[in-house]
Amino acid sequence: MAVDKKQITIVGAGLTGSLLGLRLGQRGYKVDLLERRRQTSENAEDSGRSINLALSRRGIDALKVVGIMEDVAPLLIPMKGRMLHFENGDKEFSPYGQRAEEVIYSVSRRDLNRLLVTRAVEAPDVNVVFEQKCTSIDFDASRLTLEDVGSGESQDRSFELLIGCDGAGSKVRRALMEKTGGISISDFLDHDYKELEIPSGEAGTWQLEKEALHIWPRGEFMLISLPNLDGSFTVTLFLPKMGTPSFESLADKVSVEAFFEKTFPTARALMPDLVDDFFCNPTGRLGTVRCQPWHLEDKCLLLGDAAHAIVPFHGQGMNCAFEDCVVLDGLLDTHNEDWAAVNVQFSKHRKPDADAIAQMAIENYTTMRSTVTDPKYSLKKAIGFELERRLPELFIPRYSMVMFHDMPYSEALEKGEIQRTILNRLADGIQSIDSVDWEQAEAMVKSRI
Ligand SMILES: Cc1cc2nc3c(=O)[nH]c(=O)nc-3n(C[C@H](O)[C@H](O)[C@H](O)COP(=O)(O)OP(=O)(O)OC[C@H]3O[C@@H](n4cnc5c(N)ncnc54)[C@H](O)[C@@H]3O)c2cc1C
Q: pTM above 0.90?
């Protein structure tokens, strides 16, 4: 049966909004995509957001659905595992997975967003309007107010279905909560982050192993770096807001120099502009947004960070947001484009998954900054890989379930909990993987999972 397609208004042409706009345009919808930034988006609002991102299976699947993966591929650098940099200067490589395809990819946020927006601009059914900031929404009248960022003038505009893809500080979310009496909670960590840089070496070479995500784990805090195509690395310091050391305690040039010399000497040696970068670059906050509801009848829906911003330690915020678009796309098929039903089902099925990845992302901060240095962690990881080799249908390490598979995040969380107790039991009282009783281990997995 032919369906009368709604006119769709998306607020925010970031990663989520531009991908969603493209997909809905491909489905035959007329889409207005409203973005407050300028079209050539090298502006101040981008600074402070991560410069590069880790793209993994869920995000790649979504890019394939809109047929853009071939254009994204040249922007990617594979990262096959973590390169750990210990305090004594030793390094250790720890692979993320055990199959050739089990890698994640470093990609520039700006390049990826620019590609998606360019495709949206080119799409015949997508009308991208820049420098338009949504300032208020009247759901009863189905109208929103847009402020022209250049002139400061406001104008009203009607909408049929409004989709909020306007990120963690979403205006659409705030209006939806007001209208429905819903609840939105933003939980901020006691830690902030700051981006720094390791420039490229001679002739654009990479000064650290290129195909790895580098971590300098230091217990309460850490430094990480991801490679860029131009040979540089984007470095991120995650550190408590207060105490010693903290962003508060690193208040002057001398303390920053001393802290890096003492704590991260190998990275410091590669960062000639450390002090300038430290004081010029903004300090970012790290938070989780949980809200309910995500929709209003067939009039409004939230997607991506607007619905469920998470901390970046599992590298899943964008991947989860891209997966939102795929899930929504599937529901439009299942429910014959009946948006009232689609919105209900989307919220119902996706919310537990968003809550699950939010939890795993927070847990992964402790893993990255501290647990990775514990020999027991390496032992359990090795046992997990061996169980996956022996029982691939039953046992997949939690990190792999999240990064390399497309099972719901909530299932990965649930199975991961059971696997954690199994690994704790198997690793208890032994120092080496050679001491594992594999018959007992396999029996345990078969009976519990
Ligand atoms: C330090 C850091 C590292 C990260 N690393 C990763 C990673 O490795 N992998 C990963 O998957 N995710 C990562 N993320 C998360 C990822 O950045 C987000 O999940 C992703 O950007 C969400 O996309 P979005 O389009 O929903 O929101 P945003 O990217 O925030 O885009 C929102 C868009 O809406 C526009 N907008 C906002 N308000 C309005 C308004 N009122 N009117 C009009 N337009 C508006 C904005 O200008 C913007 O273009 C990281 C995040 C941080 C902070």
A: yes
